[in-house]
Specification:
With 332 residues, the chain is an all-alpha fold. Helices cover 63% and strands 0% of the residues.
């Protein structure tokens, strides 16, 4: 199989490959991280430019008259030699900067090598694809347990927040920041919390159970009608989510619950709260719900669309979802 390179973090193009625009992106990353280009290369280029200046200056003095006359005399000759040196410096600097086009690829290879990353089997990739809509929107990695560069995968000194990333194009969020974000978003402060959160999303805390309770309330009929209107022309689209099939329970809005659970588990892993084995075990549990209920990826994303319509109750959110879905499918 081919090399398992993913997108550049924050990018929506898969997989990462050398691109002309990476020059500007890398330059911005260097500025943000306070890193300069390889100083050895910079000094070599400067030395070559200085040598070029004196070489041309000697030519302007010692060369035959028909050559020297092109340089002029005195200050004029020195100025023209200086311009030649500037051109040499600029050309060499530009050529060196072209290496930045492929820097994201080289750094992702280095990351995979340092973390011992291995290519995931098809089953694991299918499980991670359950969060592909959110991954695509955020520019996260879609084909690894960690959704972005993770300090816990590098280990050692990089577990310390003060140790900066060894990569220019792969930021490493501080572990303390990731844990604070998890606690604020999901009330996950430990590995046990992460596992419990995934299980809870299959129970009363799920969007699906809340949807079921809403459908049985006094405003249930009105909300189902509103949901159907947001989804399109089928007046029974909302009610169909409550239908039980002979061999399967109702779909409700389990796609969003599964997506949220897998996203939270991946975040807990990246924050060092869950081991790789425990994270996959939790993902195995919740992903079985999706693979049991939905017949295809279109079926899954249609259900996720309905979940967005119910939760946000805005036509704009549904339209944004449709646009994001088209972009996601076009990127593969």
């Amino acid at each position: 199989m081919g090399e398992a390179l993913q997108n550049h973090p924050g990018d929506r193009e898969f997989p990462v490959r050398p691109r002309w625009r990476h020059r500007a992106m890398v330059a911005k990353a260097r500025k943000q991280t306070g890193r300069r280009r390889d100083r050895a290369a910079a000094w070599i280029i400067m030395a070559i430019a200085i040598v070029a200046f004196f070489a041309v200056l000697l030519i302007s003095i010692l060369a035959p008259y028909d050559v020297r006359q092109h340089f002029g005399n005195g200050i004029q000759a020195v100025w023209r030699c200086f311009l030649v040196a500037i051109v040499v410096w600029f050309v060499l600097t530009f050529i060196t900067s072209l290496r930045d086009i492929g820097l994201p690829v080289r750094e992702q290879r280095r990351y995979r090598e340092r973390t011992g990353a291995r290519e995931l089997p098809a089953r694991r990739l299918q499980q991670l694809a359950l969060t592909s809509f959110g991954d695509f929107h955020e520019g996260w990695w879609p084909a690894s347990l960690a959704p972005y560069g993770a300090r816990v995968e590098l280990g050692g000194e990089y577990l310390q927040d003060a140790t900066r990333s060894p990569f220019v194009t792969i930021p490493l969020p501080p572990v303390t920041f990731l844990r604070r974000e998890l606690d604020e978003a999901y009330k996950i402060a430990s590995g046990r919390d992460g596992q419990a959160f995934a299980v809870d999303l299959l129970g009363p805390k799920s969007v699906s159970w809340q949807f079921l309770a809403l459908s049985r309330s006094a405003e249930g009929e009105a909300r189902l009608t509103r949901l159907s209107s947001l989804l399109g022309t089928d007046p029974w689209a909302g009610s169909n989510l409550l239908d039980r099939r002979a061999d399967r329970p109702p779909k409700l809005l389990w796609s969003m619950d599964v997506k949220n659970a897998v996203t939270a588990v991946r975040g807990a892993y990246a924050a060092g709260l869950l081991s790789e084995d425990d994270a996959w075990a939790s993902i195995d549990l919740v992903s079985d719900v999706a693979f049991t209920l939905f017949d295809s990826w279109d079926d899954y994303f249609d259900n996720l669309r309905a979940a967005y319509a119910l939760v946000y109750d805005e036509l704009k959110k549904v339209q944004d979802f449709d646009a994001g879905r088209r972009e996601l499918f076009a990127s593969n």
